User: Fold NAD(P)H-hydrate epimerase from Tieghemiomyces parasiticus.
Amino acid sequence: MPIIRSTLDADLQYLTQKIAQEVDKELMSPAGGFVVEQLMELAGLSVAQSVAKEYPLTKYGQVLVCCGPGNNGGDGLVAARHLWHFGYKPSIYYPKHSKKELFQNLVTQCNNLHIPFVDILAVKSGDYSLIVDAIFGFSFSGAVREPFGEIMKILAESKVPIAAVDIPSGWDVEQGDVHHTDIRPEMLISLTAPKLAAKHFRGKFHYLGGRFVSSDFAHKFGLELPAYPGTDQCVRLP
Assistant:
């Protein structure tokens, strides 16, 4: 199974879209033993912890979490909940709710914490110090469709730092920003393993999250992942 190595860091590997999908499928197979709820919870927690490591609460307390309708958006909903427990004041922009029970439960969990769900007008007028981009993940392909056009423009023009979950929204999973979204996140939090588009990331902070890969599983897919320090759910990459 082909794994593409970086020429900059021989120990860091990048996954194609197809391999990333196969890895996800295998994790949730009988051999992997996980369910999507577990993976989403661990991914969202690692996103929140990565953010907390580089963006201190005292300066970046007001966080806008932008969520799409798929699993990347679910990671964002989980991250918002954990950020609230960490002391941040997140708001959530989630214009296209999923009807799946999993996502409805995540929304209920955020509502129970009184985390506000905001519309695009509130996003435009809000005073946020950090944006978490959890709109589109590694399954994204094609052109951006409504109702996400306006928020994509806001992300492209943002003067506050953006932390992208797994893939900057609208980027090609392998080739980077070939669709010219002009979204340039300051932080990228890759999940499970970095995707090929991460080679085009030029921001300050690249983290890896999703501490759920066993050594046997990593060996099967040829993954050479860095060690996570202590009890951390994320690790900063070179």
User: Anything to note?
Assistant: Confidence is low (pLDDT under 50) at residues 1-10.
